[in-house]
User: What shape does this take?
Amino acid sequence: MERYEWGSGAHEAHLLWGERVIQELTQTDTGSFLTQLFICLERVECIAFFPRPVMRNARDWRSPMQPEFSTISAITLAIAVLGAVLGVINTWKSIDRDKVKLRVVPKHAIPVGMPDDRDRLCIDVTNLSTFPVTISEVGILFKGTEEKGALIQPIIYDGGPFPRRLDARSSFTVYFSPEATLKEAFRVTRCAYARTDCGVQATGTSGALKQMVRDARKAHRP
Assistant: This one.
C-alpha cells in the first residue's frame, strides 16, 4: 500500500497517483477490474482521509494530529471515482458488444403494380449487433400457446437466399401470402419473431400488426 506524507512534494505525488489510477482502471480487463477497484479505493481512503502530517517543530508533538482534507485530496478522490466509473463503462461495453441484438418489426404491406394487389403482412428484421448473424426462422407467435407460425418458404422480393446472413446494421424483409391473415389462427397473433442459427430469438410488435389482427377478428364474426 502506498502512503504519501504531507509536506514538500506531496501535492505533486497525489496528482501523479491520480493519473495512474485512471490508467489502471481504464486498461484493466473484466476479470481483474474488481480487484483493481478495491485496491484503488483503499489507496484513496488512506491518502484522502488519513494523511500523516509532517512534524515541523517541537510544538507539533503537543498538538493533536488532526486529519486534513485539502483541495488536492478532493481532486485526487474525484479522479479516482472518475477512473472507477470509466472502468465500469468499459466493462459494460465489452459485455454488450458480444450480445446478439435484432430488431423485429411487423408491417402492413400494400403491393403496387403487382398482379396480386391484396394487402399482406411482412416482417422486417434488422441486425443491430456488431457482427454478422444468420436468420434461420421468421414467423409469428400466438397468445396462450407456445406454438409458432413459422414461414417455411417466406416470400423475399430482393431475390436473396433464406436462411439469410445479415451483416452488422443490415436488414431484410419477408412477406406472408395474402391468405395467411385469413386463417383462424391469425386472430390470436401476439407478435412477430426472428430466430438465429445460434438459437437467439427476438420478438416485436407494431400498430400495423395489431390493426390487422383486429380486422381479422371482425371478418370472422358471425
